[in-house]
# Entry
Amino acid sequence: MVKKAPGQVQHLSIEALAGLKERLATGAPFKSYGEIVEWLKTEYNLELTYATVYAWAHYRLQAKLKVPRPQSALEDVEAVELLKKTSFQQY
# Structure
């Protein structure tokens, strides 16, 4: 029989981990890892640190929390397209 050290208990419960995976895959996207911390606190009553949530979401679940940057309402679309066509692009 192989002996194994007991180790530390996981911070995320199985239900919370399944819920987080589902929310990251199909639900409304999170804008930040702090938002995930708050969501876990309200949904599963888990008091986790930012670093723990970041490690789980970023490294283990490989989640991408990318939200496009806001654009100005005053931006001239034609000028942007002209700049893209005429600017020097190095390959």
About this structure: Residues 14-25 form the longest helix (12 residues).
